[in-house]
């Protein structure tokens, strides 16, 4: 079954909506972004993330020392990197890494082979900040690429109304969404539920939780 990461969470209600409806990963953004949280804020929010849901910290060109300090304090399970981090940098962090790659054309995927990471996140070209523009990229590029055993996470412009098509075309190990579950720039609990329901194709006998 495809795994789902809900990223850019900033409050208890959104975390609980994601966790109660089948999210596999919760993302905290520590890079420059309108969804940015501080180490202290993330530490407080982390207490609402159940043990079976993995906590991911999102960074852009941060020092390994700061990443490791935040990871220890917050209790992060994965580090997600959206900057110009090298394969060597990823190895030295001491935690599983999700390395993001912007996909404009097929040649962008050639960079993946140099990295030894837990997951490889394929995203649309960045907007104002690193981490995607909220628009989809050409999924057919990925279909033609042989990733062998690499675990791919698909991101960029995903919503409840296109997620099943994305999964069918790309067959990723997982998907990552942020703006696609927001209304007016804030996480929308109903959109989180709808996205998870669509991504999981109505598992759990078609039931979704409305726990707030």
Automatic annotation (TrEMBL):
Residues 4-196 form the N-(5'phosphoribosyl) anthranilate isomerase (PRAI) domain. Pathway: Amino-acid biosynthesis; L-tryptophan biosynthesis; L-tryptophan from chorismate: step 3/5. One of its GO terms (molecular function) is phosphoribosylanthranilate isomerase activity. It catalyses: N-(5-phospho-beta-D-ribosyl)anthranilate = 1-(2-carboxyphenylamino)-1-deoxy-D-ribulose 5-phosphate. The keyword DNA-binding does not apply. The keyword Isomerase applies. InterPro entries: Aldolase_TIM (IPR013785), PRAI_dom (IPR001240), RibuloseP-bd_barrel (IPR011060), TrpF_fam (IPR044643). Keywords: Amino-acid biosynthesis, Aromatic amino acid biosynthesis, Isomerase, Tryptophan biosynthesis. Belongs to the TrpF family. This is N-(5'-phosphoribosyl)anthranilate isomerase.
